[in-house]
Amino acid sequence: MMDKETTTTVSVVYAQSEMLLKEVYLFERIDVCAGTEAMKHMKCIAFLRPIRENVELLVQELRNPRYGQYYIYFSNTVNRSDIKELAEADDQECIQEVKEFFGDYVALAPHLFSFNLTGCFQGQRWSTAAFERSVQGLVALLLSLRKAPVVRYQCNSEPARRLAEGVSQWMKREAKLFDFRKPEVPPLLLILDRRSDVVTPLLNQWTYQAMVHELLKIQNNRVNLSQVPGLSRDLQDMVLSEDNDEFYSNNMYKNFGEIGSNIKELMEEFQAKTKSHEKVESIADMKAFVEHYPQFKKIQGTVAKHVTLVGELSRLVGAHSLLEVSEVEQEIVATRDHSDLLKRVRSLIGSSKVRDIDCLRLVILYALHFDKHSNSDLSGLVHLLKNRGISETLLRMIPAALDFQERKLQPNDKFSADNVRAFTKKVIKGLKGVENIYTQHVPLVYDILEDLLRGRLRDNAYPQAYAPSDSGSILRYQDITVFIAGGVTYEESLSIYKLNVANSTVRIMLGGTCVHNFSSFLDELRAASSEYTRSGRRL
User: Does 3.40.50.2060 match the CATH number of domain 4-101?
Assistant: First the structure.
């Protein structure tokens, strides 16, 4: 028995077939199970968030129990008053166990987690619900990993400061829970603000995982292709898990160009196995076929899945001129050659092949980088968007993006607009001699972590909100958790993966309120701008 959120938490870690192997035969949601028949011969394992709604539903369940025994596990700390209420409702003494099992987050990969929250900011502040959920999720993460970290935050960000203080207060209040054996170097929780890097969630992507999320959307490691015509039902809902899909695990961070050749190799392997199974003439042949049939079927499913995915990605790339769009995106963030880029952006906006969403993407990137340029023609580009028929709702995302970046960035800070451009120019070496012009952009979180790993992250820019009593001065952290308030991207996940590979003695985890693509980031901008408008700006 689970709730909506714990169902997600479990489903990204275990397939239903794996649960069946552990003798779990029935799955139900606590909020939709009323009226189902009693099965007193069965035991019920409840894994629930300790929120008021779930406690009330459990009380109702225990007053009229449908199962013989109940083992109740809460995904975070639970109030004693709630435990007392459950005990009072358990007249038939069905409860066998109540425990706190800290899993109040979605583990998407060994180095990536999310809380599946969008629209975290209201104006310049946290939304109350998103703030409380983020504190609870981070506390559960730390407790599940048995970490009592130093907590640092981005000094120019009020949301980062408030979240760091919220987690720190919880750690102090629940000091006994955080009384773990202390490592020689304490772990670090570093809290950043999405506003520091608005560019990363705006870009088209060209590595496999990030590209699938950008163009098709990955939700809790699943891809829904029901909108693609002509697909069989078993290909309309796909699971992308690096644990259960060797091809995906080996290729999720590869460039799209490499995926095509690797798909071809997978096809050739499958065809070779198919031919070997065509001749079943003897008992030995039959035995070999039966023994290898599960693996054969698995390869068949993998081939069908990835051929379908890559085929749909290729169709979208060709149909909507995404190579041309992405090249201009990368040049906008890499150069100040304004006049040539302005012509190319105008040309793409005038193309019927380019999607409205990509035209908007280009204009937002142009606005972020050339809004203050002496020859900026932002108003002209907005006029072209209006002529395309793009709605006022979407057009409002342009000033919303400018607000989102500029409102929180202080002058002379590392993350000021000029320094963002300077950093981008530094990491993008120019187009000449670059292996792939479409994957040049490097997220700012990569630069921050490189400074941290080299002991160069300034204390005044990233002050401490909490430190274990005996932590002292630390120059080299070895266990780092980075959390970005406002959401992360799969491009940033790739950066963390690369840092982990390059630094074998360091373990870095990345988390965020959600994992963005461009569409979800527009939702984030919309929520953040709902209570805040740019004074005096007209587009």
Answer: yes
